[in-house]
Design a protein that fits this description.
- About 10% of the residues lie in helices and about 40% in strands.
- The protein has about 160 residues and is mainly beta.
- It has one domain (about 30-160): Cupredoxins -  blue copper proteins (Immunoglobulin-like).
- It has a six-stranded mixed β-sheet, with no helix packed on it. A five-stranded mixed β-sheet has the order 2-9-6-3-4.
Length: about 160
């Protein structure tokens, strides 16, 4: 009979999102890029020409080191993305740079499709910048979140028609 830790490890592997072959994470860590079935919605590349640039910061709202103590006691540590709303034009490559400002807290980024399926996932290592060029191919609202610190650490892309 397998041990509980071995079973947990096998479960984690079985349910981990597949990585796209031939790609490397520019920021290191785990990542998952949109697959071919999602190409009609979104394209993501680690490099490339971008017509716009946005920097998204991770912010500590309430943490054990600085409080407020009652907030941390009630809700745990609270973090946020800033900005929380990013407006982009359809079919316009936009470089999004995620900057994790915390020295000892890991964050991640999960982009959800209209059906709430994860289109993209990546780790955001402490004190690192991680950049990707996003090109949305459909207008709409796309939610994103840190899976470790949701629901407070979340946001949305609003994709509008081309210029």
């Amino acid at each position: 009979m397998r041990s509980a830790s071995a079973a947990a490890a096998l479960t984690a592997i079985a349910f981990a999102p597949p990585l796209r072959a031939g790609t490397a994470s520019p920021g290191g860590g785990r990542f998952y890029l949109p697959g071919l079935q999602d190409a009609a919605i979104l394209s993501v590349a680690p490099q490339g020409a971008a017509r716009a640039d946005v920097t998204v910061l991770t912010e500590a709202v309430a943490i054990k080191e600085t409080g407020p103590a009652q907030t941390v006691k009630t809700f745990g540590e609270v973090y946020a993305f800033s900005p929380e709303t990013i407006i982009v034009h359809r079919d316009e490559p936009t470089r999004i740079t995620f900057w994790n400002l915390q020295s000892n807290d890991h964050h991640d980024f999960a982009l959800m499709g209209p059906d709430l399926k994860v289109l993209m996932y990546m780790d955001l290592p402490p004190l690192k910048k991680t950049s990707w060029v996003f090109t949305f191919h459909r207008d709409g609202l796309y939610n994103f979140k840190c899976m470790q610190h949701e629901p407070a650490m979340s946001g949305q892309f609003l994709v509008i028609p081309p210029r």
